[in-house]
Amino acid sequence: MTAKKTTTSSSRASKSSKYGVGDKVVHPQHGAATIAKKVKQEFAGEKRDYYVLDIATEQLTVMVPVDKIEEVIRPIISKTQARNVLSVLKDEPQEAGSNWSRWYKVLNEKMTSGDIFQVAEVVRDLNFAQQTKGISPALKRMLSRARLTLTSELEFALDIDDEEAVKRLDRALPVFDPIE
């Protein structure tokens, strides 16, 4: 499908929409984002309003239909919730056990859930596995992505820069001795 016409507007979709241009939000697959603008776009002869999200962690913009926005995105967590997320990192890690493929699937589901507490669990569990036994390249990529997703939301929630968010994440993560 190709776009035929785009117009920009900075107003909220309706009086009932809780989101507007400039709001900080979270997209479940892409992490923290800012609603950059509202556009009217025509695809296949149908005009719809979209919010354009600038994703904080990548050079990416995502368009979400305004009438589906409540189903797709969620607000950034509060400062209190951010502290609670960091405390999840100190909880007892879940280990893979003997079924690595099942564990990978569970971790992947947590990553795409849109729930920052589940993303924190992924960071905690993969951090533990990496320090104690080592992890595969695929799990290293997942850990890197989970850390990025977590720090991007902490930046917005705590109103801090990326460097400080990484420091807080690193300070919250326990250090484990390798299993011999």
Report what the structure shows.
The longest helix has 22 residues, at 137-158. The termini are far apart. This protein folds into two domains: 6-75, Thrombin, subunit H; 79-172, CarD-like, C-terminal domain (Methane Monooxygenase Hydroxylase, Chain G, domain 1, Up-down Bundle), CATH 1.20.58. Strands 1, 2, 3, 4, 5 and 6 form a six-stranded antiparallel beta sheet that branches. Helix 2 runs parallel beside helix 4 (116-132), helix 4 packs across helix 5 and helix 5 crosses helix 6. The radius of gyration is 19 Å and the shape is elongated. It has helices spanning 69-72, 79-88, 100-111, 116-132, 137-158, 162-172, and strands spanning 6-9, 24-27, 31-43, 46-55, 61-65, 74-75. With 180 residues, it is of the alpha+beta class.
Radius of gyration: 19 Å
Oligomer: single chain
The N- to C-terminal Cα distance equals 56 Å
Q: What share of the residues does DSSP label as strand, in percent? A: 15-25%
